[in-house]
């Protein structure tokens, strides 16, 4: 099948910062490595500043720039709305897009509140009846090592799961002079480490374990409560604009919780931006009766696996370099041992999303999955504000 | 100073199993590597079975065997009582020995209950007035890497501590057919993973951080509640004696808790015997404003250190091989890069204990330190039995 | 500066297999991450089969397909010829392109013989006088960790270099049933492991050390001399077409050599396709009086550095995660700890090449550099065929 | 069997420095962990200085001190002579001891020259006829991980061996002010890095591979030719006595060679004291058609194993923690995950030597094995002095 013969899939993207750059890269490249059933066309992006949106569109390969996301939805040549703006905007955009019959790919966390997430999941449910697809962008599911981990658990290689241990450790705000960027503002971000990176490990842990957190005891902390107000930001960073004075951090710097999963496993989660020296240590370890798996995103091409069915004489955690042709996604890229990076996870996400649209099936993780993560986040926040008392996750 | 000119220090040891073997090794060798101010003499060990005690004494290098620990205390040539028997026996032996004017080295956990530990700490306090020394054998403090870690924190290399993360992961009872050894019996052991290995990481974490846990939210679990009754045991292991039937596990298989330290750091602890593939993964990570430290006993000669005062361009976790002459204890042994093992930690313990006795100073960790760990254990157990609600550690 | 205002730089690429896919990806994406001084336009690729070239052009994002590389050179809209075809074709294409005033980016090894490489270097020298640029595509120089390593050596962080140790370990032909692909044919590939991967470590080692190999003692081996004839191939792989019979392997499976560098360092190199379990272990370690560096491509985002000026008490190999904004190339991509992959090295190569063209400077590595590597390869082959006797590298 | 009932085996040790301390530790402890068929009695040590020998005997647990090794041989209560003095003394002592009917354990390298080694091997051969045993102390064979590696190769887990890669990297003389200790004097030490640590990796590589080096191309270097004369020394270290002036280093600082083994494998060896930051990195990697093994003494409790018969999807180098009951030697010590150190290798050596004496079998490695290593060393030196030309190892 040649490129021309594939049905065009027009994409409109909202936002063009960190996530926007990552998603653009994915839309630009997915077709060169995967034999997609549709041909993504990067129709337009939307941003509030015309100049910046135009420059971003040029740089990132989009055909046009809009200053209102509603324009993207209005366009007939746009089939997919890709939401890369902060969490407080997700619900309105997603619901509008779904109601307009556009497929929606939405960055995580799905929303800033459970109420918004419910609204979105309901909109997704209604849209699904009309063949309109929706997906929340928990990109870590598309790390080949974690996709392999999921497959191995599903195949029973771990037996009965006893422990699920997840950490997401970063250190980008250890310095008290780091400015008050939007991610430290509860109104924009919903929460701090909890929703930003805690959401990732909740989703990843539940995805790999094939099970859900049912109750938690939690503890949250804001170590540094006043920070310099921020100037312009980019990525996770920003320059403090010294003269703007100080503002109040309204989100958590760190969130810890212990809990149980429905299958009986004990869990332990930690999300923090104060783990000095850990840059993006998104870690997962699962111990089961038949084996164990361990992963650290700082070595994202590797999966550690202990096979408890082996002879104890030669058993050991093996470092699987997840770059073989028979590994998820990896065969499309380079020969074994030629590593993939962070951006490849988004390319895989786009591939799966396009395939789901083409085949008329529901992509995963769904908005319902995003809602469930939101409910875990809510239980964590509730327990943390109530002396750590055991709090059930709303079913 | 020649060996002969050193004052003899007669030692009587109670118990000769796993810990007895380790302590014997230490008494036998400390003088060959450290210039001790006293000459330990391995006078006698005590065990209930005369035959087994006699065989153990011969094998391990003790001059005699007794069948009653009281005999050790009665002997004039015994200056030190070394308690290596299960936790339910500690209080009685230690108090008797201290009252008889014998220095006491007592295995951990100090006792099976806070009440016993209080009694022991009070006896130690009284004995101290008479120049009688006591020490609880948290041997991990004498791992050179952890002693170095403690020194670095004390020197301020970590700045303000934000996170203390400790895990003690083992897997020796994953198999449901593993028998009901004494460590799974609450009457002998006091608790399961919590008191056995959780106690170690509580002490180690507090020691290295130079701070104490003040409150916790906890979760404990017994995954497998019935096991085959055990025959004879050795080390951690035992053979199930298939015909004896089944018994009930009365201790925890795993204990998790999150909490705070008095200096404001968040803590996370996990002790489990169900972490398949982790054999003795006693791990500690501390994140501070100026740096971080990480340790794993499965690579016990290494300490990972991230120096946050370094240029970000060349900063990174460095793997310090703690075998240099200027490292704690290491200079007494071999050239750099020639590793030490588990048993060396006991030799270091004996060295420090003998030096404290000779210099008339109190060795560390004291029975008071052991009592404080006991109080953390009690708070954990209480919180776990009360829906994880925040529980203050008794001061 | 907007995209439109940048001068267009038309690119014509020869070949579209493994390297062609990698180069295409780089041309497609460099402008989205780096603020290039010119706008690459992917004009056309050339391949012998019209159907395959056309399909590849569509898939990889090229505007047209040609069946003769000469057509690319004839086109006025092509400014750059990018040579991704096997080594036996390099000299003819490169010389023709340079003589036609096209800038040339040529895959490594530069040529299959020293004579061809001399011819190419001379053509590059003549073209340079006319402002025409040439570069040999040793992409590993653009791994951020190796670029950082080079900078650190240049800054004197290693002091006097004593040892340069390089290995390139793969295992893709361990199976005797792996077929006789073109890389095992001396007429196509020039040599086996030596020219394919040995060339990479020779260039990388010399680049990072800032020094050149002056003489060698060598040993080469072909472990498996007969293999099934190959069907169609892709990447490094191919399916044996069982019915085609067997053919003779005419290249080396492994090449080892020891030698000296002009600054007095001892070197040790090993290139092999028989290191079972090593997928792309391109490793380099340099020991100097002031420090050491170590690298393994299977963890390509990490650089190990030992600073010998540190206090021995806290010295240790530090794992620098080379993803910081102040690391070479890394700042253009993602936040710290978000890894890069194999393909990014090509994007960096394109960026540097375009910048050199725009600024009228000579990119590095030059064809002269490629020729010097060829001379090392020739000395290795000569020594290996003459009982390992010391063989000077032609100056 | 009780201790008393075991036949006493009197030991006399020559030398009491680094190796003397290590061997004393082994004699002192072997019986406490292994059920030996004989009871070693530490009768006496010999050293030239009466005061130092007496102090060492007291400290290390020997019953007496002699100032002439001949006295040890004369004693009826000495059954075993343990030679821990420098290489230039080995031949005379060993031959005299064997002729006097004493079993001999001799430190490595067996001798400083092939001629001496031949003489020793012949003496061993004659003594063997009289039931007198001899063994050369290549202690690395008794690292449990390397003993396991040997077993795995012997069981065919690696298939046909293609590569044997060995390095012994240290850095203790990187500083030009490090003094001229006896190990840098050819008359005492025979050679430098080559005989000291190169001998270890030659023996270990041949032992694990079960094969012998048949020919080599070599390169040796002395980077720093003048050093301060040394005062008293200990272990590997010494304090320069600044006022003594300078002397000439008469041994190699580094030795590299490539070669072949009789089974067709290619080998690469490097021994150096100039690998800054590597403290005792005695490394071995073997690649075979069915699997690979890797080892680094700086993590001496671990063995890396890649099983090429596994599904490529879950294959990976596994880290075997060699502390299980079914691992060589390990079961006698501690529970799994409780590490062993450098000194344990000597304890294992003593155990095996005592068992061989008791059972009337020849221990391994024999003096013939030591002679064969000496012949490899000689071939390396010869090749290095003859422009690296291929040099066969004398059969």
Automatic annotation (TrEMBL), chains A, B, C, D:
Taxonomy, superkingdom: Bacteria
InterPro entries: Gfo/Idh/MocA-like_OxRdtase_N, Gfo/Idh/MocA_oxidrdct_glycsds, GFO_IDH_MocA-like_dom, NAD(P)-bd_dom_sf
Domain (GFO/IDH/MocA-like oxidoreductase) ranges: 148-293
Keyword Oxidoreductase: yes
One Gene Ontology MF term: oxidoreductase activity
Pfam families to which the protein is assigned, alphabetical: GFO_IDH_MocA, GFO_IDH_MocA_C3
Domain Gfo/Idh/MocA-like oxidoreductase N-terminal: 10-127
Alphabetically ordered keywords of this record: Oxidoreductase
Organism whose genome encodes this protein: Actinoallomurus bryophytorum
Protein name: Putative dehydrogenase
């Amino acid at each position: 099948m040649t490129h021309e013969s594939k049905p065009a899939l027009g994409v409109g993207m909202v936002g063009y910062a960190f996530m926007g750059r990552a998603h653009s890269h994915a839309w630009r490249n997915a077709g060169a490595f995967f034999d997609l059933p549709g041909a993504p066309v990067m129709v337009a992006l939307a941003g509030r500043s015309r100049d910046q949106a135009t420059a971003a569109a040029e740089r990132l390969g989009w055909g046009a720039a809009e200053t209102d996301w509603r324009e993207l939805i209005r366009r007939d040549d746009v089939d997919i709305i890709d939401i890369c703006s902060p969490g407080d905007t997700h619900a309105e955009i997603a619901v509008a897009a779904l109601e307009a019959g556009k497929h929606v790919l939405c960055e995580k966390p799905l929303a800033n509140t459970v109420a918004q997430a419910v609204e979105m999941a309901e909109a997704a449910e209604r849209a699904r009846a009309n063949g309109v697809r929706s997906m929340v962008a928990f990109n870590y599911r598309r790390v080949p090592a974690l996709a392999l981990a999921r497959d191995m658990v599903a195949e029973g290689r771990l037996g009965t799961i006893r422990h699920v241990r997840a950490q997401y450790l970063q250190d980008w705000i250890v310095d008290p002079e780091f400015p008050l960027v939007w991610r430290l503002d509860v109104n924009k971000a919903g929460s701090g480490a909890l929703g930003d990176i805690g959401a990732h490990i909740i989703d990843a842990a539940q995805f790999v374990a094939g099970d859900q957190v049912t109750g938690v005891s939690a503890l949250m902390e804001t170590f540094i409560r006043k920070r310099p107000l921020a100037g312009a930001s980019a990525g996770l960073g920003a320059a403090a604009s010294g003269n703007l004075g100080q503002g109040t951090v309204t989100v958590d710097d760190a969130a810890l919780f212990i809990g149980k999963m429905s299958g009986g496993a004990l869990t332990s989660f930690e999300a923090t931006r104060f783990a000095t020296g850990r840059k993006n240590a998104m870690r997962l370890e699962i111990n089961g009766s038949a084996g164990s798996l361990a992963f650290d995103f700082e070595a994202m091409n590797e999966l550690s696996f202990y096979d408890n069915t082996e002879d104890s004489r030669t058993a050991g955690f093996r470092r699987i370099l997840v770059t073989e042709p028979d590994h998820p996604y990896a065969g499309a890229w380079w020969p074994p041992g030629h590593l993939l990076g962070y951006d490849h996870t988004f390319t895989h996400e786009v591939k799966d999303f396009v395939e789901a649209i083409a085949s008329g099936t529901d992509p995963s993780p769904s908005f319902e999955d995003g809602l469930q993560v939101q409910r875990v986040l809510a239980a964590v926040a509730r327990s943390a504000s109530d002396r750590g008392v055991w709090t059930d996750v709303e079913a």
